[in-house]
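Help needed: design a sequence for this.
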């Protein structure tokens, strides 16, 4: 395996485990949140999917976007399966873009997110994108524990 293949495998494993968590949340609990200022469970799922699309465009732009029209913003969240189906086209485009990079690109291409406080190599940015989803999946597992919802085993 080369570095790009390993990065893609990491994205696939992170998403597989996220989906395992997302699909285990009872529909009746999707609006649950630990406090008034927190994201609900469905908002967190939507945030992860929408952020991946934003990050994809930022990678293509080699930096933050000056404006972003979210394809998710006007959609009403119905079910996790519907949300995943809607996001699949964007996910496929993102993964295909990652597969199009060379190993040299990982070190040589810079992603300028100075508005967010950093400029990083493409390789670093790809790891940050996967980490972002992983953190939110962990948050959802904590939400589920707090709400008394049975949690799936993600370490299979």
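Sure. Designed sequence:
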């Amino acid at each position: 395996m080369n570095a790009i293949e390993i990065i893609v495998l990491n994205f696939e494993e992170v998403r597989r485990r996220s989906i395992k968590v997302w699909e285990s949340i009872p529909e009746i609990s999707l609006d649950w949140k630990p406090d008034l200022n927190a994201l609900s469970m469905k908002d967190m799922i939507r945030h992860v999917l929408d952020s991946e699309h934003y990050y994809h465009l930022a990678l293509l732009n080699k930096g933050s976007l000056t404006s972003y029209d979210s394809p998710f913003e006007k959609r009403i969240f119905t079910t996790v399966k519907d949300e995943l189906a809607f996001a699949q086209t964007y996910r496929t485009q993102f993964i295909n873009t990652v597969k199009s990079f060379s190993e040299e690109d990982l070190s040589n291409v810079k992603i300028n997110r100075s508005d967010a406080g950093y400029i990083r190599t493409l390789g670093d940015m790809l790891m940050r994108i996967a980490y972002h989803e992983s953190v939110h999946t962990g948050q959802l597992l904590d939400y589920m524990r707090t709400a008394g919802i049975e949690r799936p085993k993600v370490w299979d």
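The beta strands are 110-113, 118-121.
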